[in-house]
Write a structure and sequence with these properties.
Layout: H1 2-17, H2 26-36, H3 42-54, H4 59-102, H5 106-134, H6 138-153, H7 158-180
Helix pairs in contact: 1-4, 3-4, 6-7
């Protein structure tokens, strides 16, 4: 029971400070789950990000489910998920109750502008860290450039990109192993 509470509290604290959604949260998750707690490896976390992108929901919430499950089984996954989403539920409820009264104020609009810029910087940092650990060879570089380029110009689901990248990786591995024989 204590382990489940530790899982809940750890993800609760991260959920309370992870603003911006998606990739902006990844550096916080990596620092807490890999470096500080040692609950998972950087490689597993990257795999969880990829799977989290392909499954319904927010990447960080999905990742909290995967890591919670990894260290505490089914109930660990549930506690990780609940821990991560509880602060959001509280904060969103408060904002929804108050925002309509203050959204028109210039200072509030400027604050949101600053927050958007901060989220962009956090997302850039997450991409840079993922690049360092995920792109290990020329094929990885080519896949990265192709997906980045296509995502700028085409409106395609990220699931399609992940499936295509996985397919290219599998085919490249088959070609590599065939050429060694």
């Amino acid at each position: 029971m204590k382990k489940l509470l530790v899982i809940y509290w750890t993800f609760f604290k991260m959920g309370a400070v992870c603003f911006g959604g998606g990739y902006a949260m990844l550096p916080i998750l990596e620092r807490e789950l890999v470096k500080k707690r040692g609950w998972t490896t950087k490689e597993n976390l990257i795999d969880y990000y990829a799977i989290g992108q392909c499954t319904p929901g927010v990447i960080a919430v999905n990742t909290s489910t995967f890591v919670g499950n990894e260290i505490g089984g089914i109930f660990g996954g549930i506690m990780g998920t609940l821990g991560f989403i509880t602060p959001s539920i509280i904060i969103i409820t408060l904002i929804a109750a108050l925002l309509s009264n203050f959204a028109h104020i210039d200072m509030v609009q400027r604050a949101f502008g600053g927050i958007r810029i901060c989220v962009c910087a956090l997302m850039f940092m997450a991409v840079a860290k993922l690049w360092k650990s995920a792109v290990k060879d020329m094929l990885g570089t080519v896949i990265f450039i192709m997906v980045a380029g296509c995502s700028v110009f085409l409106d395609i689901s990220p699931v399609i990109y992940v499936i295509l990248a996985a397919t290219v990786g599998i085919i490249a591995d088959k070609i590599k192993s065939t050429s060694k024989e």
